Request: fold
Amino acid sequence: MNFQVIGVNHNSAPLEVRERLAVTEQQLPDAIRSLVKQPGVDEGMVLSTCNRVEVVTSTKQGADLRSFLRSYFGVSADALQSHIYEFEQRDAVRHVFRVASSLDSMVVGEPQILGQIKEAYAVARGMGAINSALEALLSRAFAVAKRVRSETAIGSSSVSIASVAVELAEKIFGSLEDKTVYLVGAGKMAELAARHLIAHGAKNIIISNRTYERAVELADTFGGQAVPYDRLYETADNADIVLTSTGAPEPIFRREHGERMLSRRKNRPMFFIDIAVPRNVDPAVNRLDGMFVYDIDDLQSVAANNSAERKKEAERAEKIIELEVDRFASRMKSLAVVPTILSLQEYCETIRQAEIDRIRGKLGSITPEQEAAIEAMTRGIINKLLHTPITTLKSSTAHPEAETIHEMIRRIFNLDSGKSNR
Reply:
């Protein structure tokens, strides 16, 4: 298993580091193309969410994924050094399984991460960047995530980032019933936020999105009002709460916007909940009196309050993960010996056929029954001779010296040279 994972997440890196590595949906194909061009990388995918940016690869020994991060994102080694984590082989498999099962999420048990991984996988697979090894790993990760969710109650008390944002809004205002909420961005996060806002009493919802038709669609679904994106700045001051979740590479609300909105609101306070990475709201807005900005990292403290009740279920899930890692490792080892077994059988069959051809002229005329008897006898000899090495290969997958045994058999039968010992 030559798997490698490298990345940053909400635990290893602050938001200002994560947003420097964030990959937008439009940038994703280019990032994948650059990744698989790296020396030693056979297959690869890039996962970029509000809480993590990770590179998952199947590699040859010696692939330098840190070099890819530095060169592609233009970030210095010093800036990344203390924030990056790396996993290889079995540890990489475990990490992918844990991420897919939402055990590594800011909000443990949240369901969005699995969908995000599937989307990243679909893009990479569609580009031909995922083949046999990562196909096996990701397919198993999806099955493991399903098992964790079905066999534990880890998702029963889980909350999404969007619902944590709504919980924060409730703590700020006490009630959302008379408050106007402005959603900037009409993607999945915004849709989730709208559902939670309505469930918690919000009735006045305004939605603006670069694609106006999508804003109208979401507004119709939730009984809200759609606003063209070019009217964002002239209408945002109508809101008490602005929840941003766009994929804009630069902040869309800056200090000067905040100053104008405060003036029009006659200094009534205004709250921004920014769940986008990179951030949609410049931190400088938070320094204005009457402007309060909460970003994705601020939501972590709210999410932490719910962690205790999920701890026991998470422990059960971790045991499932460990069992599945063992099973996957065994399966991959078993698959690794198949080419050797096939080569061994082909090698011996070539010798058998050559020997039959060599003596056939000396036998004279033989009946079909005699021909069949020769075939059966020689095949029986080959099968008996191959029984021990093939059995040894299959059983060696659980042996600590499996690779040594595997290599020894290949050398004994000269399977790597392309030559026979006839």
Notes: The longest strand covers residues 41-48. Residues 159 and 244 are 18 Å apart (CA to CA). The radius of gyration is 29 Å.
